[in-house]
Specification:
Helix content is 39%, strand content 21%. A hairpin with a 2-residue loop joins strand 2 and strand 3. It has one domain. The protein is globular.
Length: 219
């Protein structure tokens, strides 16, 4: 896949994510809300060597309540860190993330497992708040988020020559980048609104987005 650069500055939740991973590592497992997403983490070495603070059933119930409270009755995306390099080859490698080195190593080795839950409806609503129609194309029974599946359709409602209308389709790899890389949703929306009004928008549908200040964020 090719790359396209947005002029939008990159904003992420990776600092909050690093704090969450620290909590997960100390407790063995944890779940919390980070901005508009719910995150669950499991640190296997801690779970192997210390008595559990709560049963698996209790933890799952608490996680379900957390998701229902912040993402009620919506279509969700769920992504897992395990085997992510195979399922989402276009995302930044874990070794580049601005986390402590031990966390990066443990995520790479699947000793530290992370699950992200995010509402697709909320992402679409963020486009609509900017005046951009957004249609969900992903079926609720689609299963795992494949990088090539169509997820959101953004029709360009601006006037065009000769009555030709344009659109931008966001595929699974764009949403994988949003969630795995911890990109702020408003930043993600700004960049794709910029793409929608570029003349070569059709080539961007299968390209990975690069922000204007990537170098500063991946140190």
């Amino acid at each position: 896949m090719s790359l396209w650069q947005a002029s939008t500055p990159l904003r992420t939740h990776n600092r909050a994510m690093a704090s969450f991973l620290d909590t997960t590592r100390r407790r063995g497992h944890a779940s919390t809300r980070i901005a508009d997403r719910v995150v669950a983490g499991f640190h296997l070495p801690t779970l192997w060597n210390t008595p559990p603070r709560e049963t698996e059933a209790t933890y799952r119930q608490r996680l379900r309540r957390l998701r229902e409270r912040h993402q009620p009755g919506m279509q969700h995306l769920c992504l897992f860190s395990i085997d992510s390099a195979a399922r989402a080859p276009g995302i930044a490698p874990w070794a580049l993330y601005p986390w402590p080195a031990r966390y990066r190593a443990e995520v790479i080795c699947d000793y530290l497992l992370v699950a992200w839950y995010m509402s697709l409806d909320q992402i679409a609503a963020e486009f609509r708040r900017r005046g951009q129609p957004a249609q969900i194309r992903l079926r609720s029974d689609q299963g795992p988020l494949d990088k090539d599946v169509e997820v959101l359709l953004l029709p360009d409602s601006s006037p065009s020559l000769f009555g030709i209308t344009h659109r931008l389709i966001l595929h699974g790899h764009a949403l994988q980048q949003l969630i795995f890389e911890g990109i702020d949703t408003s930043c993600f929306v700004d960049a794709h609104l910029e793409a929608l009004h570029r003349p070569n928008r059709s080539t961007m549908e299968h390209s990975f987005m690069v922000f204007s200040n990537e170098r500063a964020n991946w140190r």
